[in-house]
From TrEMBL:
GO terms for biological process: lipid A biosynthetic process. It comes from Allosediminivita pacifica. The gene is lpxC. Keywords: Hydrolase, Lipid A biosynthesis, Lipid biosynthesis, Lipid metabolism, Metal-binding, Zinc. Zn(2+) binds at residues 78, 235, 239. This is UDP-3-O-acyl-N-acetylglucosamine deacetylase. GO terms for molecular function: metal ion binding; UDP-3-O-acyl-N-acetylglucosamine deacetylase activity.
Amino acid sequence: MQTTIRSAVTFEGVGLHSGAPARMTIRPASAEHGIWFKRTDIRLGDAMIPARWNVVEVSPLCTQIVNRAGVAVSTIEHVMAALAGCGVHNALIEIDGPEVPILDGSAAPFVRAILSRGVRQLDAPVRAIEILAPVAIQTPKGWARLEPGQGLSMDFHISFSDAAIGEQNRRMNLANGAFVRELCDSRTFCRAADIEAMRAAGKARGGTYENAVVVEGDRILSPGGLRHADEAVRHKMLDALGDLALAGLPILGHYTGHKAGHAITNALLHELFAHPEAYRLVTCDAVQAARLPGVGVEVEAVPEVA
């Protein structure tokens, strides 16, 4: 059945790129509502923004959604991954500014809070997007592909010149709470050499060594080091789950990303929905529903570091 969060939960922090303080509350919503953001600081005009692939404004460092009135919310990928990974299909997310708080740079604070509140079943069946035929996006920087699969699974490959990251590969089936146990605590990361350029471009103004993994050559500059030896590729998978959640329904298929980022994954969704023969909407039976991320997961599964 479709779900929502059992009771409201609030987060406070600063935006990773804007550096602006933000207060955000995830509230329960009814069946078929989906995930929507509401800018509570917008007093006149349309403050509602659907968390959907077709309102994404391309940004190289985060995912930003914008409604027809030009009202935007950015860096939504971690909270979207948390909702998808906890199996929450419907929620209203109220926020008093233009960017989701970054917290510790991972999805774990969102996951822990959602699971602590609990997930409530609603009186409507859950539907999913079943991939029937492969679709792909190829760019000079990287590529991504969706192809048929029984549940949602992922392959991801990254390559960085800094030895602290280097080449990393990971393959995962995201059923049975794997996102919560293995991905949700992996933090966003960057190269120390890129920080000055990002800030000159108006980005990373809220970034610190506490909310991002900063690497320089073979060194990890952030205190405490890595949470996982392959934390970087795990975070890329976390981002991909959040960006795929903008399809509006869970996906039954296999995603492969090779040096893929937010823009490539969003382009992949555009490619998917441009080819109706490549997918179908299904009402999940018990077997299909059991393969979705978040089914049966408990708050005790969240890594202790969060």
